[in-house]
Each structure stands twice: as C-alpha cells, then as structure tokens.
C-alpha cells in the first residue's frame, strides 16, 4: 500500500491512498484525516486503507497530480537520523578531517521535524557559500515504541518506508560536530519522496530490516549515483532499538538510514557531493567538485529490483531564501 | 500573565490562565484550546487572555490543583537547547575530559520535543547506572521566526519564559559527544515547571534578553544550588538568531539557556550534579558525589528578585522505568 498527503492549506494535509503505478489516488480522510493520525490509529484503520487500495487496483480513483502533494508526513513529532552506511562515515571523516568513530554502535542525531519539504518544492538556503549538499537515504515511520525495546521486537513497530533527501550544509557541519552537540544550522529541513509505502509493497527488496533496492541520484540531470541500500551496517530495527534505549518513541517518529553509500563507490557513484569530494581528496589530494549553486537541481528515485519506483521521485531546485 | 496546561486526557491538555499567586486559575479553552495553538494565534488572542488574567487578579477563578497540570507545552514541534553559561561548559569539559570548545558561537542541540514531563511527574529511567542527572535552566517559547533573523529582531518573537529540568544521562553523554552527532540516548524528555510567563511578569529581572533571577535547586530536600541567570554569555535573542540562521522556526519552538551556572560556584552551588563532580575532580583529583538513585527527588524553583516564584516549582522523583 502506498500513502501520500495532498495539500489542503493546513500543515498536515489530507491523507490519500495511491495506486501501485503512482498515477491515481483515492481520498482517505474519512479513514484518518492525515498520515500522522493514521499512524497513531494504525491497527484500527489499516484494513479500511486496504479496501481503498484494492479499489484503486480495480481501476477506481482519480488522477493524481504530483504537484498537489506535500511530503507524506509534512511534519511529525520526532525525526532521528542514523548514519548506518560505514562507507559514508569513512568518506566523511576524510571530507571533514575528523577522527574515526566507534563503528560498534549506531550513529544518530535528532533533526528538525516540524517541516519536511514536498518532493517538488524549491528548497531555500540563505547563502550559496554554506556548502549546499544533498544526502539520499531511506527511512521508516514507526508506531509508538516502548523504551527499552530490543531490535528483535522493534521490527513489528515499522509501519511505512520512505525515501529522504537530508539537506546538509557542509561548511557548518564540521564546526558543529566539533562541539559534540550535533547539528542545528548544518541540518535544515529534509525533503521526502511523495509516497510512504508498507513493507509488503517492497516485496523481497525488504529483507533483514533494510530496503535492499537502489537509489538513483541525478544532479542537474546527470547521473551521480546508483547506490544500493543493502550495505546498512545496522538494520532499521537496530536503529529503532538504539533510539528507544532511554525514551519511548512517539507514534509517527521517522528514523533515517543516513546517506546510502557502497564500498564499490567507483562503480556505483554516491548519494551526496561531500563523498565525491572525499574520493577526490583521496585520489588527487584535493576536492574538485563544488557544492550546489542556486538554480541547481537534484533528483532521487528509489528503485525496486523489478524496476518499479515505490516512493516516487524527489526532484528539486535549490533557491536563495527570500527569492 | 501566567499560563498553564491542565490535564484533559489528550496530549496537549487544556489552556488555563493562572493568578499571580499561583493559587487560582480560569479555563482559557474558549480563547485557544491549548498553549501551542495560543502561540500560533498569539496576536489575535493575547488581549482575551489578558482579560482572564485581570478577572483572576480581581478575585475570580477557581482553586488550582498543582497535580492537575501538565507541562505548559506538553509537546511541541521543536526544542533547541543552548549551553550559554560558560562556567557550565568549562566544568563539563573537566567532567568529560573533553577539549575546550569555541566560546565565540553559541552551543546548541536539538532535543526530544514530543513530550515534556509535568512538574510533579515521576521520571522513569531504565538503569541507575546511566548517571542520572538534572540540569536546571530557563527557556523561552517563541512565535514563528523567519530564517536569518538578527538578534536585535529576534527579541520581539519571544512569547513566554519557562523553567526547565533537562534530564541527562552522564555515562552516555561523552560517548555520544565524541561522535559529533550530539545526544539521543543521553537526553531523554525534559521536565518543565508549571507556569509559562510573559516577559512583563518578570519585571526588571528580565533584562538584556535574560532572566536575571535565581534558580533554587534541592536534591533529596537539601540545598544544592542557588544560581543566577544573569551570566548567560549569549542572550535568548542571540540564541534564537543562532537557531534561525538556516531554518524558519516554527511557532511553539522552545529554546533553552543550558544549565544555569555561575563563576562563584563555591558560594552559589550548582544546578547539576556533573558540575559538582567536576569541582571535586579539580579540588581532589576525583569525584565524590554520586549521580541520582531511584527514589531520589529533585526540586527546582525560579525566584524573582522580589522573592516571588513566577514559574512555580518542579518537584520530582526518579523511578525505574516500568515500575
């Protein structure tokens, strides 16, 4: 099942169910007004959403206008982003000239969750000189999770899988990291691909608590990466257990994988510019690739192994704030 | 004006206006259902809240049961905590054996905002061995703030001032700091004193963008600190401008001062245990004071210079999660 959120002038939008081809939809506001409420009441409403999905696959519904959509969760109470791909971590240590981190426990920070950009929103930044970078990743949305949950138990709380662009400002990031306090200025609002999907929608590409499909990344229309989600060093259930060690997780918590990255980056490319700069630093002693400029575009599409695109596509332009 | 939130079985509770002596209240749900909505609609509703406040001072209203209250904002979309007292930072570097940080820019992390404990809630933690500590601080709640706001402009967005206990787990904190990602496990939900107050309620104790009153801290009924808010190295407007450099701040964002701490700690005491342990390390080479045990209590009361207690009192017991 695929779910999306349609603009209605209010922050949380209207819940819609989307057909498997991403072309049609049915309003689901009679089942739950918005996706956050749907997550809070999942057990009681999931079958009603399933009926709408079946109606769509039987040919019902209306044409879906991609421009009418918000992010699946336009806002939520909690966003915790992991960094579960070790290749990404190793390359970022080169990029930031920072010390190696302990790989035995997940890395995770708490990010801005009051706003997620829609897949087609222009994304404003105050200054081109801040090192504007994208980070392609996958994430999960969970039901309420009790403090102290084990990774084995955590899997059952996953309700939906999403695809995310975790916008990052690279000239600020290492300064904030050195404080130990994590990122505020270096991590503005993220963008989320239009469709949030249930695990069954991903078929065999969901295995070992990971989305093992690919993520295709294009920068200004040119191929930048075709990376694969299977190299997560920690599964989503392990990330959930990490997050819930000392807190109950509120229903609607979104947890990210961190930038998708592969050991075979020479073949696969990357899902962020900073990695490419690190690879250039390793090869040539200095980075050659610049960060994004105003007017640049980035697109990101998750791919199942059958070639389908369960999450739809993020396609955005970077603009100057206030323009 | 003092505002509080009364339990109604729903997460956001009911808005009430509270008398200046903290003894009586009037329901304000006809003005705004809850405090988060009140902040979102502040300009249009503040005069109606003022009428209720005047009615209370004229002797109206009903008796306020402190146990009936939630935190003023039981949840909000964003919680950003600064660390604006340099004495605290310097002592924490001793406690954690960490490198000095750059004092020229504010320190700030994004914390859990989906839940704030009420002032009288027991506070559960999974394990006594995690180094359970309190951190007494002040904070502000702001209206929507545009990206790029200056500190001069930021002052006008402050709607309310609050008093906070930022619960911290000290055995995890330095491990998470070393990653540069900031705290997730080391910073569970905070507690907030019962009353959120407008600036005029603080009189001359609100100056230079700081609450310059004191915070009285007791641990298990014994005096632990009587610290003063005037030594903030960055004012609240400066913290707001820091937070808003690359993001719009959503209405209802809460921004904290970090642990109140003074250079004259030998006379004033402290607002967290970790500082006392650092002072012992400096004096004796090793800490003597243990962190909190299950069953321990902490109380915190902000004091105006006239001896009044604008925020009410936090008085809590630490318990084992699941007990």
Q: DSSP helix count of chain A? A: 8
The largest contact between protein chains, plus residue counts on each side, is: A-B, 50 and 50 residues
Task: Give the beta-strand count of chain A.
Answer: 21
Cα-based radius of gyration of chain A, to the nearest Å: 19 Å
Helix vs. strand class of chain A? alpha+beta
The biggest beta sheet of chain A, please? 6 strands, antiparallel
Residue fraction in strands of chain A: 25-35%
Overall mean confidence score, pLDDT of chain A: 97
Tell the overall outline of chain A: globular
Query: Roughly how many Å apart are the termini of chain A?
Result: 38 Å
Order of helices and strands of chain A: EEEHHEEEHEEEEHEEHEEEEEEHEHHEE
Give unreliable regions of chain A as ranges.
none
Summed up:
2 copies of one chain form a homodimer. Chain A is of the alpha+beta class and 323 residues long.
How does this structure look, described?
With 323 residues, the first copy, chain A, is of the alpha+beta class. Chain A has eight helices and 21 strands. Chain A has helices spanning 35-40, 42-57, 86-96, 151-154, 173-179, 236-243, 265-268, 273-284; strands spanning 2-6, 14-18, 24-27, 62-63, 69-70, 79-82, 108-111, 123-125, 132-133, 136-142, 158-165, 168-169, 191-192, 196-197, 206-207, 210-211, 214-219, 222-228, 254-256, 297-303, 313-320. In chain A, the strands form five sheets. In chain A, strands 1, 2, 3, 4, 5 and 14 form a six-stranded antiparallel beta sheet that branches. In chain A, α3 crosses α8. The interface between A and B is large, with 50 and 50 residues.
């Amino acid at each position: 099942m695929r779910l999306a959120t349609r603009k209605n002038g209010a922050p949380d939008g209207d819940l819609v169910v989307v057909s498997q081809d991403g072309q049609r939809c049915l309003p689901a506001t009679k089942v739950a007004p918005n996706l956050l409420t749907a997550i809070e009441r999942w057990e009681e409403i999931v079958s009603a959403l399933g009926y709408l999905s079946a109606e769509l696959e039987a040919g019902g519904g209306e044409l879906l206008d991609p421009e009418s959509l918000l992010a699946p969760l336009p806002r939520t109470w909690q966003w915790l982003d992991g960094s579960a791909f070790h290749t990404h971590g190793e390359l970022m240590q080169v990029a930031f000239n920072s010390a190696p981190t302990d790989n035995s426990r997940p890395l995770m920070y708490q990010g801005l969750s009051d706003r997620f950009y829609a897949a087609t929103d222009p994304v404003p930044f105050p200054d081109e000189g801040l090192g504007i970078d994208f980070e392609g990743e996958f994430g999960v949305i969970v039901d309420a999770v009790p403090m102290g949950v084990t990774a084995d138990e955590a899997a059952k709380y996953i309700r939906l899988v999403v695809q995310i662009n975790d916008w990052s400002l690279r000239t600020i990031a290492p300064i904030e990291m050195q404080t130990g306090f994590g990122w505020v200025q270096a991590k503005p609002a993220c963008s989320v691909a239009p469709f949030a999907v249930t695990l069954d929608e991903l078929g065999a590409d969901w295995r070992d608590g990971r989305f093992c499909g690919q993520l295709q990344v294009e920068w200004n229309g040119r191929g930048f990466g075709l990376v694969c989600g299977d190299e997560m060093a920690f599964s989503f259930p392990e990330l959930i257990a990490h997050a819930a060690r000392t807190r109950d997780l509120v229903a609607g918590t979104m947890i990210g994988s961190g930038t998708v990255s592969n050991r075979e980056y020479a073949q696969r490319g990357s899902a962020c510019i900073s990695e490419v700069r690190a690879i250039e630093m390793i090869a040539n002693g200095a980075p050659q690739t610049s960060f994004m400029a105003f007017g640049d575009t980035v697109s990101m599409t998750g791919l199942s192994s059958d070639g389908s695109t369960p999450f739809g596509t993020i396609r955005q332009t970077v603009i100057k704030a206030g323009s």
